[in-house]
Amino acid sequence: MELATKSTTRKSSPRLEVKFRRIWKFKLLYVLLLPAFAWVFIFDYLPLYGVSIAFMDYNVIQGFPGSSWAGLKHFNMLFESDMFLNAFKNTLIISLYKMISGFICPILLALALNEIRTVWFKKTLQTAVYLPRFVSWVVYGGIITILLSPETGIINKFIEFFGGKPAYLLVEPNYFRAILVVTDAMKEMGWAAIIYIAAIAGLNPEVYEAAIVDGATRFKRIIHVTLPGITSTIVVIFILRVGYVMSAGLDQVINLYNPMVFEVGDILDTYIYRVGIEQFNLSLAAAADVIKGVIGLLLVLTANHIAKRINPDSGIF
Amino acid sequence: MKLTGGEKAFVTTNYIVLTLLTLIIVLPFWYVISVSITPYHIFSEKDGMVLFPTSFSFEYYEYLLQKGSLIYGSYGNTIRNTAGGVLLALFLTATVAYALAEKKLPGRKIFILYFVFTMLFKGGLIPTYITIKQLGLLNTNYVLILVMAFSAFNMIIMKSFFEGIPESLRESASIDGASEFRILWRIILPLSMPVIASVGLLYMVVYWNDFFNALLYVTDWSKAPVQLVLRSIISSSSLPPELLEAAGRTPPPTIGIQMSAIVIVALPMLIIYPLIQKYFDQGMMVGSVKG
Question: CB atoms < 10 A from the CB of A27, how many?
Fold first, then answer.
């Protein structure tokens, strides 16, 4: 018996030793890996276990031990709930609108900025349009709420000045989605343009010189040189945005919406928050989380797959 | 270079459109600042049209920032969370990014998958909430520092930066007898300042601006960050009783309080980002495009 073990160790030890030596050589790097590894385990992987409450009747006071399995009960309830279906529909609609505006505006902005030759002016514009990205939606939503307020809001003063009738725009279901889309574009387009500005800066100047020699006007140069040059970036960004359709902008909506516009403005994230945290129906909300997460995962994977087919270097993983 | 007539029109239109767009984006901020330093009687005389302050008053700020007021205390919480959070986040992100930038590291692919998976699928709001609750972190002073301390996306930005540092640099240093830790501290770290500054800024903005995690995990006003206090100042047409109680005297008109509170909360980030802007123009975007 002893002999047998000895012989096996002797046989495999060189290979093991090589492997161990290879690992030992990088010991410092493994130590460096450890803190983030632990963090991700606690804050990203432990919650995956918490997903199980979507399939339970979760007892808030007693926790997991006091909860019984409920199967797909909560999923069935969701699909019969008008509130949930409404939030689901709104999420898709608002995301789609935002995708169009939030996708086109930054490209146009980057192209326009690229045509500004006065360096200080360009820098000033850039700094100014990045600005809203650095405030929270509490701040930006607050500013919007104040500007649109029926009594003191300056927007209404302008509407009155031009002979219109003042209105409390934030409680009007007809305007709410438009407000979401416009304010989202105003806040994010500057920052979103950076990636295109970087892509344009990386284009080969010789191509431009050749185009000038050929007599291409500025506008023609944009259409025939700049735009084709950044197409791969545009495609990647577009497809990645498709992957995040299930998140329609929690921070924005929760700071702007109110019961008057739930019908057009309630999204999955705000629904989950209200049902789970405010009404303490944790299992039902968790089931909505699961639906959102699974569809989101499928979309991201599909989007990434397509991005890689178009350009093998692109995609985030 | 001579411009043709059509090109001139094109360039001029471009200047005008961009200037208008910039004004639309900046003016709301300007207006809020302007109102916050205008005395209320002038504000109502002009019916709210105070694009340029003609006389100044800081009564709103004095009221909001007096010692013991809710905003004063919560401001301290936000500063503590942001300072502690950015340090922790940079530590967690830089260490793992440096390790994974080493292409020969055994098991590298599996580790990368482990981290990137978190970008694909998250447990979601409720399961995360339950986990935080079971860990006993709910309503503690450090919960907000902990929950935002790592983003796989930022890790990828840093990793691609580290991958761009030529290996010969480290090799020559190790031939000179420098220990691995010393190489990291003395050579890699100073070289990485652009990416540390830009990723640090991204984290700083996240920590400073967070209100939703606070809404979930902090119920005690004395532990609340300033964004949460601002939210209650804005969403209620009358000021929250907690705020009034702490202040102890009749408050100035709500609109002015709201606007100056917005300025107080937003200003630090608006001052800091232009200072760091040059770094994210340089280093960061290279990484985020390639992934």
Answer: 10
